[in-house]
Amino acid sequence: MKLAGTKKFFLIGLPGSGKTTVGKILSMEIQIPFLDLDGEVEKKEKKTVSEIFRTDGEPFFREIESHVLQEIIHKKTEYVLSCGGGTPFFFENMKHMKENGITIYLETPWEDISVRLWRKKEKRPLIESISSQDFQNSIEKRFSYRIPIYKTADIIINTACKEKKTVVGEIVSALHTFI
Fold first, then answer.
1. Angle in degrees, 0-180, between the axes of helices 135-143 and 110-119, rounded to the nearest 10
2. What's the rounded Cα separation, in Å, for the pair 146 and 41?
3. What distance in Å separates the CA atoms of residue 107 and residue 159, rounded to the nearest whole number?
4. For residue 92, is it left (φ>0), alpha (ψ between -120 and 50) or beta?
5. Selected residue with higher pLDDT from 3 and 102
6. Which of 26, 121, 139, 146 is least surrounded by Cβ atoms within 10 Å, i.e. has the fewest?
7. Distance between CA atoms of 30 and 113, rounded to whole angstroms?
8. At residue 108, does pLDDT exceed 70?
9. Tens of pLDDT along 131-162?
10. Using N-to-C axis directions, what is the helix angle for 58-75 and 49-56, rounded to 10°?
11. Which among 93, 73, 87 is positioned nearest to 12, based on CA atoms?
């Protein structure tokens, strides 16, 4: 299905909310390229996100992330972009995304987030040091401040107990109100 009008879509949400997986399916459904912001940062820096956090620190990563986001916004005409969980909170990135496309928040229950993050926590620099004891509460404390900003997205899709293709179908339906 080809959509007319705006063709810049920004997927936002907590780490582990399924932005990359949903983004890939959505890009195939609406027939435009998929990009992953972390992947684009890794290409530019020739290091993994974890390596950047470890060697250069989070402030440097956030600066590069914002710079790469701006490059994508201004140089590419159509895409589904999976953003890092923290992307909307630095350098007015959320404002820039909203001014240049449609932001889509994947609202995912804390239980799902904690299960998904626990499985891959060694690959996630902001949580790799959290112990198994009370992991979910630690995740909620660490990331709950993000929810109000996420909720300013143009589209909010609750992902609870839904298959990824169902989530994509809901996004496509919601996009018709914007395009």
1. 110
2. 22
3. 6
4. left
5. 102
6. 146
7. 27
8. yes
9. 667 777 888 888 899 999 999 999 999 999 99
10. 130
11. 87
Q: Which of 110, 102, 114, 116 lies closest to 156 in space, CA to CA?
A: 102
| Encoded tokens for 136 | 């979910």
- Residue type, position 68, single letter: V
Helix, strand, or coil (residue 44): helix
- Identify the pLDDT of residue 43: 98
Burial (CB count within 10 angstroms: exposed 0-12, middle 13-18, buried 19+), residue 43: exposed
Mean pLDDT of 76-103: 97
Query: Which pLDDT belongs to residue 126?
Result: 65
Quick one: which of 28, 25, 32 has its CA closest to 168? Answer: 25
